Automatic annotation (TrEMBL):
Protein name: Saccharopine dehydrogenase family protein
Lineage: Bacteria, Bacillati, Bacillota, Bacilli, Bacillales
Stretches assigned to the Saccharopine dehydrogenase-like C-terminal domain: 140-386
Superkingdom as given in the UniProt entry: Bacteria
Organism: Sporolactobacillus shoreae
InterPro entries xref list: NAD(P)-bd_dom_sf, Sacchrp_dh-like_C, Sacchrp_dh_NADP-bd
UniProt xrefs under Pfam families: Sacchrp_dh_C (PF16653), Sacchrp_dh_NADP (PF03435)
Amino acid sequence: MGKALIIGAGGVASVVVHKCCQNPDVFEEICIASRTVSKCEALKQGLDGGKTKIQTAQVDANNVPELVALIKKFQPDIVINVALPYQDLTIMDACLETKVDYVDTANYEPEDTAKFEYKWQWAYRERFKEAGITALLGSGFDPGVTGVFSAYAQKHYFDTISQIDILDANAGDHGYPFATNFNPEINIREVTAKGSYYDNGKFIETDPMSIKQVYNFPQIGPKDIYLLHHEEMESLALNIKGIKKIRFWMTFSQKYLTHLEVLQNVGMTSIEPINFEGKQIVPLQFLKAVLPDPASLGPRTKGKTNIGCIFQGEKDGKPVTYYVYNVCDHEECYKEVGSQAVSYTTGVPAMIGAEMVLTGKWKKPGVYNIEEFDPDPFMDALNRFGLPWHESFVPELVK
Ligand code: NDP
């Protein structure tokens, strides 16, 4: 069927590569390209010899001419961006110049401002439309599957959805006193930022980690959940007609929060450069360098994740509640692809999103968030590629 250029060679990219290789009729050829080519080579070595042909390349994804040259050389049908959010715009620029479709898992964030918003990527809408190419934004789990779940609930069970609670639980234990499950810099920027929720047409800001509840998750049990700002709320507020309230909740253990508080208090989570022995360093980037690499957590992590959405609204004048979620086991993921569940739950939807565009099911010139497409083929693919979902019409609600 086609060729995909995968940019990045970290935890999520590793899962994308494994999953493309499990789907060789769609992904006949892939090129893994990243800043550190040895990581691309290591991924290739682990999977070479199957039906999907694998190439590797070195690329600085901040550099548009380098990206354009690589795209012209490899001639992919789609670019899967699983590098960092800082590279979204340069990769989109290169796709525009070469007229190649684009998929990512996280929205653009300027490196010097911890504020992620869709406005930068939505500004590419007209240019992608004119070029006749598709950009699918946010095809991970959250954002990603949470948007697909929302479109599915809207299509099959509701006339109007008035409230969405997105619940992201990780009950995994990696045995380290403190480590993050995906890129530490991105993760810590996200959790130390102000929280927010959508309420009747506007976003209400909250102090970081200031709203806490306990939720009893299916297959995991009761966990502390904290209200966070999360990027899919911005697009869901526009794309789910009649929506009044959206909240995003994530679990954190007391141990994680205590470490984070100390790191914050001593200034280690700051993104303001400081002068250290004559050299400018960013404390958060230094912290990332001393923390365990998320890709190394795979063999040590035990337990499960549960990510899903609870919808409240109406169908035929009657109230409806609907909970749809996936439960993923860290050890099972590691057995299958050599990564823990946080990378797995992001990498599988990235591959599926690319398949949707490559096979023409979601091919539509322009820049789109995932909930703007027909959810049914994606929901079906989740079941086939390792992220089966469960549903309940009588869930416990978040207070
Ligand atoms: P990692 O840090 O493990 O991997 C990032 C990769 O990008 C590394 O291989 C890195 O190279 C490469 N990279 C960074 N900068 C450049 C550059 N300038 N040029 C080329 N390559 C570069 O991150 P993860 O795999 O954990 O996360 C990948 C993406 O997935 C992130 O955008 C993250 O926000 C997103 N994500 C989305 C989730 C979702 O549910 N939607 C959940 C989790 C993550 P090097 O090895 O040299 O550092």
